[in-house]
Amino acid sequence: MAVFPIPFIPKFDYHYGGIRFGASRDGGNRRHAGCDLIAPVGTPVRAIEWGLVLQGPKPFYHGTYSIVVQYNGYIVRYCEVDKKVADEVYEGANVQAGQTIAWVGKMNNSSMLHLEMYKGNEGGHYTQTNGKKKYNNVEAKNFKRRPDLLDPTPYLDKWRLWTDFSSWVGDLFE
Ligand SMILES: [Zn+2]
User: Fold this and answer.
1) Most buried of 10, 53, 70, 105 (most Cβ within 10 A)?
2) How far, in Å, is the centroid of ligand 1 from the Cα of 115?
3) What's the CATH code of the domain at 98?
4) How far is the CA of 33 from the centre of ligand 1 (A)?
5) Is residue 59 domain-resident?
6) Is residue 98 in some structural domain?
7) Average pLDDT over residues 145-157
8) Residue 93 to residue 55: CA distance in whole angstroms
9) What percent of the chain has pLDDT over 90?
């Protein structure tokens, strides 16, 4: 069982709120690569399950940062988080299910966790930024997205709020 990446289900449905997976960006040159979980600045961001930090905070968008965690069979890129992440989060560190790893960061007029997923375990560059270069044998202009990009929607639907887990764990030890 895996944990939903923030402590509540966003009021703005991530299926339709914000910008959903696959929506067109930049006049059709780019696909929206993830799901937006609209949440206040400072909302804790949680590890889905046991994982390995592949990338510490890296500048992402409008003053926000991204971190990357390898889980069992998939990679999650947590984006639009604050520059200050949990002390335990650095390249090569392990994280546990439900652990707070970062906090939602502040953008101009909004704040959210932009969550991207990649199948498998290939780290590296998550966006094709060089218009001339192939990445994973995919021609540039392929929406600048990697072919192993996953739609997070069905996963988000399946993952459970951490509060559900704590009550479950509580039962176990009573
Ligand atoms: Zn987004």
Assistant:
1) 105
2) 7
3) 2.70.70.10
4) 7
5) yes
6) yes
7) 88
8) 10
9) 56
Ligand 1 centre to CA of 98 (Å) is 22
CA of 32 to the centre of ligand 1 (A): 6
Half-sphere exposure of 84 (CA within 13 A, CB side): 5
Asked if residue 126 is part of any domain, the answer here is yes
The answer to whether the CB of 77 falls within 8 A of the CB of 116 is: yes
114 CA distance to ligand 1 centroid (A)? 4
Range of the domain at 139: 24-173
Question: How many of the other CB atoms lie within 10 Å of CB of 138?
Answer: 16
Tell me, in angstroms, the distance from the centre of ligand 1 to residue 8's CA.
18
Determine which of 9-18, 84-93, 118-127, 135-144 has the lowest per-residue pLDDT on average: 135-144
56 alpha carbon to ligand 1 midpoint, in Å? 19
Do the Cβ atoms of 99 and 78 come closer than 8 Å? no
Q: Which residue has tokens 């192993």?
A: 148
Strand-pair category, 149-150 with 112-119: antiparallel
Distance 60 CA to ligand 1 centre (A): 11
In a domain, 17, yes or no: no
- Report H helices in the chain: 153-158, 162-173
Domains: count for the chain: 1
Query: Distance from the CA of 174 to the center of ligand 1, in angstroms?
Result: 41
